[in-house]
Amino acid sequence: xxxxxxxxxxxxxxxxxxxxxxxxxxxxxxxxxxxxxxxxxxxxxxxxxxxxxxxxxxxxxxxxxxxxxxxxxxxxxxxxxxxxxxxxxxxxxxxxxxxxxxxxxxxxxxxxxxxxxxxxxxxxxxx
Length: 127
Fold this sequence. Notes:
Order of helices and strands: EHEEEEHEEE
Radius of gyration: 15 Å
Strand content: 35-45%
Number of helices: 2
CATH architecture of the largest domain: Roll
Mean pLDDT: 93
Oligomer: single chain
């Protein structure tokens, strides 16, 4: 029986550019780096308030990385969507969609390197 989600893997071509985005723009922490048994370069990152990790994988032998539109995304909670959007835009990553009001809060999206989509969620005020 499954106990909990441990990590989600995304394969990338430009590992260092992608790591920089997740660390410098989103503020994730690098947990560890390793090389798999088949030679994949792996980097694990996580958000400060989460246990789950994101695994970035560079394995050129698998061919080109092709990310289909609207196929997958990661969602992160932010305290202040406007403040985050301004910071991300200054880093070269403007919002690609939104913000939109939803369920008392707001959501928006930005595109990470190589076409992966990131959803940003600002929850409404708690009563």
